[in-house]
Design a protein that fits this description.
By secondary structure, the chain is α/β, with parallel strands linked by helices. It has helices at about 15-25, 45-55, 75-85, 100-110, 150-155, 170-175, 185-195, 220-240, 245-255, 260-270, 270-285, 290-315; strands at about 5-10, 30-40, 60-65, 90, 95-100, 120-130, 145-150, 165, 200-210. It folds into two domains: about 5-210, Spore Coat Polysaccharide Biosynthesis Protein SpsA, Chain A (Alpha-Beta Complex); about 220-315, no CATH class. It is built from twelve helices and nine strands. β1 (about 5-10), α1 (about 15-25) and β2 (about 30-40) form a beta-alpha-beta unit.
């Protein structure tokens, strides 16, 4: 059996999945298999993936999400893991790329650890889909850091899914990704893993993360982010995974971090009506104070900007 199974969820990524699989064919570490799980693509994704696997000589196959499973990337990844044979599971989105030494470096880290690891993640480098150019320097974080704790994750989700390699038994014991979530299902699983162990961390950019408007969490209205993050908080609140102090910290981080950020993006993009709908939803979901503060923040920024422009005209 292969040591690693690479699970690749796909949906209408015929333009990208070939390059993604080519990045696997270039791996210096060879003891792995590929499981592509298609989510009912309406383009040629399945045909391109099958042809690429055959042409590249990969140990791999195409699975289709069973009809009885909820549509979405969470169900596809879970199904891929259920069909995988590897001791370790590496996740790779069908538009991202592994660097040639990705699996080799992860296996080397696992072999050097004094205590067994359950999950590994590493830095990524982002590149623009339209130009192919990198968008800033690789986010390697603290180069001296070797682990990521629950304390780190309660502050911010710094783990990209395509950078993760997780022990299969650990993944299965936790029930995998929560299919009630769509876009933040990874964050919830990372938190639950971190309750059980510290993540091993490699400060090397071993995945190239494609930035495109049509990706799962890109180019959505504010209401989408409000829906997903408040649902995550609701799920966390109804189970006993996090203690009260941890849950309170997670709530504060989400409200002051990603939701405030996406509200600002909507405002800067001129999508004021969409911003107001998102903030209204946030209030209805039980966070009226946070909603009012975000609205005040944007209104204040508008007022200050107008005052500054007026002062410059009269200077």
């Amino acid at each position: 059996m292969p040591l690693i199974s690479v699970v690749v969820p796909s949906f209408n990524t015929a333009a990208y999945v070939g390059a993604t699989l080519e990045s696997l064919a270039r791996q210096s570490f060879r003891d792995f298999e590929v499981v592509v799980v298609d989510d009912g693509s309406t383009d040629d994704t399945k045909a391109v993936a099958a042809a690429s696997i055959a042409r590249l000589g990969l140990n791999g196959r195409i699975e289709v999400r069973p009809v009885g499973l909820t549509k979405g990337v969470a169900s596809c990844r879970n199904h891929g893991v259920s069909e995988a044979a590897g001791t370790w599971i590496a996740f790779l989105d069908s538009d991202d790329l592994f660097e040639p030494n990705k699996l080799e470096r992860v296996v080397d880290l696992l072999s050097r650890r004094g205590t067994p690891a359950l999950a590994v993640h590493h830095a990524v480098v982002r590149f623009d889909d339209a130009t192919g150019e990198t968008t800033g320097a690789p986010d390697v974080g603290d180069a001296g850091r070797r682990t990521s704790s629950l304390d780190d994750l309660l502050t911010d989700n710094s783990i990209a899914t395509s950078s993760v390699v997780v022990n299969r038994e650990c993944f299965s014991a936790l029930g995998g990704f929560d299919s009630r979530l769509n876009g933040v299902e990874d964050y919830w699983l990372w938190l639950r893993i971190a309750k059980r162990c510290e993540w091993s961390y490699l400060p090397e950019a071993l995945t190239r993360y494609r930035v495109r408007r049509g990706s799962l969490m890109g180019g959505r209205p504010l209401s989408h982010y409000v829906e997903q993050y408040t649902r995550l908080l609701s799920i966390a609140d109804r189970c006993d995974e996090l203690g009260k102090a941890e849950l309170d910290r997670l709530r504060r981080s989400i409200l002051s971090g990603p939701l405030r950020y996406y509200a600002g993006v909507a405002y800067q993009s001129g999508e004021l009506a969409a911003m107001l709908r998102g903030l209204c939803l946030l209030a209805l979901r039980g966070y009226p104070v946070a909603s009012a503060r975000m609205l005040y923040r944007q209104a204040r920024a508008t007022a200050l900007g107008s005052a500054q422009r007026a002062a410059q005209r009269w200077a």
